[in-house]
TrEMBL record:
Keywords: Cobalamin biosynthesis, Glutamine amidotransferase, Ligase. Residues 6-233 form the CobQ/CobB/MinD/ParA nucleotide binding domain. InterPro entries: Class_I_gatase-like, CobQ/CobB/MinD/ParA_Nub-bd_dom, CobQ_GATase1, CobQ_N, CobQ_synth, GATase_3, P-loop_NTPase. Residues 254-437 form the CobB/CobQ-like glutamine amidotransferase domain. GO terms for molecular function: ABC-type vitamin B12 transporter activity; ligase activity. This is Cobyric acid synthase. The lineage of its organism: Bacteria, Pseudomonadati, Deferribacterota, Deferribacteres, Deferribacterales. Pfam families: CbiA, GATase_3. GO terms for biological process: cobalamin biosynthetic process. Gene3D superfamilies: 3.40.50.880, P-loop containing nucleotide triphosphate hydrolases. Catalyzes amidations at positions B, D, E, and G on adenosylcobyrinic A,C-diamide. NH(2) groups are provided by glutamine, and one molecule of ATP is hydrogenolyzed for each amidation. The active site is at C332 (nucleophile), H429. HAMAP family: CobQ.
Length: 481
């Protein structure tokens, strides 16, 4: 039998494509296959930095980890990062290209197609199997002529397509049938099966529907995956509106993350959500802010615009009132907001200047060149016992003139601290993945928090459980013809 590449598509966004792709990657890697993930085009505000200093989607970084390999920008050759106003920053092979409107982006179709084809062919020469992931739905008939991520990519890869549907939201059989009917005729031969995801309850009650579905569609349902609570990163920021992290029993710490309109890299906070007795919430209402012990202003893809949002919606005044009383931390764009002013004379994000909170005597000036760094950073001034890891993704250059601010790392201005005024600021993403830094935070609140497993240990454990679950719930052979 001949091994073929496979592709996971979905009836819509947020049906579980990324997580199922990661699970299949780990399942195949555990079987000894040399496997790699691939998503031709990803639209996301969660990105990471590879070890060679290039930017790619966090979902594909997780999938690479599931494959037990290092992330490579060829796995996500085009990344679109929405900046607001109907525009996105286009990242090509890990490097910023330009900010364009969606209409202008589609004019770049041929050159983008060339980039993704070359990236895929290059990867496929090095691996036994590529597990591709689609985007949204292949049945978006208004976008099919511009497609480089769904059916067109499956054709290029000659991949077997499996379409995932979310039964938890209802209407999964109609979603399967409708999606298949709207797929262009030349691509239907590539579709080999449907996978029901997020099933709760008795499978025997679902089986009659699976059998009856054969009367409506020639493509079989080849798997039913139960609803699986996991601690892996979520790619869709829309889920932050419904995300709940309330834990029963004693609560040692309440952490509130302000849900900015252009929030980015909210995957930074997954390690916090995994810790018992720590409650994490995403704050959208002003009245909920003060209920938290620790307030975090997260990263932003449009820092100037989000600072304006905080000003107009009362958060600015409320945070000013809480200054020195509650611990406040800013990460990346949130760090820039802690200063006196953000200057964007070049229009890198949103042309103009805006006043910051003034919690730290510093000024940030936006620059066209994007800083992309990943590294291990040595401690300074005795606050940490060991080095920590993280990565930077930002356009701003920040000058700190504050004598009361102390560097926690040897790299000046990368992670700073003012105990008197209860302020922490950093440019490092992924900082909460470090148990060393987590314990530093808990000590600020005189809390003894036991971390039984590191974030990476939990992630590995979950990927293996997910791989086993998928293997037990798929009825056929995914990869062999």
């Amino acid at each position: 039998m001949k091994i073929k590449h496979i592709m996971i598509q979905g009836t819509s966004s947020n049906v579980g494509k990324s997580i199922i792709t990661a699970g299949i990657c780990r399942m195949l890697a555990n079987k000894g296959y040399k496997v790699a993930p691939f998503k031709a085009q990803n639209m996301a505000l969660n990105s990471g930095v590879t070890f060679d200093g290039l930017e790619m989607g966090r979902a594909q970084i997780l999938q690479a980890e599931a494959c037990k390999i290092l992330p490579d920008v060829r796995m996500n050759p085009i990344l679109l990062k929405p900046t607001g106003g109907g525009k996105s920053q286009v990242i090509r092979l890990g490097k910023p290209y330009k900010i364009v409107s969606y209409k202008d982006y589609y004019k770049m179709y041929e050159e983008n197609l060339k980039i993704v084809k070359e990236a895929f062919y290059s990867l496929s020469e090095e691996f036994d199997i590529i597990v591709l992931e689609g985007a949204g739905s292949p049945a978006e008939i208004n976008l099919q002529k511009f497609d480089i991520v769904n059916m067109k990519m499956a054709e290029i890869a000659n991949a077997k397509i499996y379409i995932v549907g979310d039964i938890d939201r209802g209407g999964v059989f109609a979603a399967f049938k409708g999606t298949y009917d709207l797929i262009q005729p030349q691509y239907k031969k590539l579709v080999k099966g449907f996978i029901i995801n997020k099933f709760r309850g008795d499978l025997s009650l679902l089986k009659p529907g699976i059998d009856e579905f054969k009367n409506f569609c020639d493509i079989p349902i080849i798997g039913v995956i139960p609803y699986f609570e996991h601690n892996l990163e979520d790619e869709d920021s829309q889920n932050l509106f419904t995300k709940k992290n309330i834990k029963s029993g004693e609560k040692l710490l309440n952490i509130g993350i302000i849900k900015l309109p252009h929030i980015s890299n909210f995957t930074d906070f997954q390690p916090l959500e995994n810790i018992e007795k720590i409650n994490v919430s995403y704050v959208t209402k002003l009245e909920n802010l003060e209920n938290n012990d620790f307030i975090i202003i997260p990263g932003s893809k449009n820092t100037v615009s989000d600072m304006d949002y905080l000003l107009k919606n009362g958060f600015y005044e409320q945070l000013k009132n809480l200054y020195g009383k509650k611990w406040i931390m800013g990460i990346c764009g949130g760090f820039q907001m802690l200063g006196k002013k953000i200057i964007d004379s070049l229009g890198v994000e949103n042309k103009g200047d805006i006043e910051g909170f003034g919690f730290i005597d510093m000024i940030t000036e936006m620059e066209e060149e994007k800083i992309l760094k990943r590294g291990e950073y040595l401690p300074a001034n005795g606050f940490l016992n060991n080095s920590i890891q993280g990565y930077e993704i930002h356009h701003g250059n920040t000058i700190i003139n504050d004598r009361d601010v102390i560097d926690i790392l040897e790299n000046k201005g990368l992670l700073v601290f003012n105990k008197k005024n209860r302020i922490i600021g950093t440019y490092l993403h992924g900082i909460f993945e470090n148990s060393e830094f987590l314990q530093f935070i808990f000590k600020l609140f005189d809390k003894q928090v036991v971390i039984n497993k590191t974030y990476n240990e939990l992630k590995e454990e979950t990927l293996n459980k997910l791989a086993d679950l998928i293997e037990n719930c798929i009825f056929g052979d995914l990869i062999n013809d």
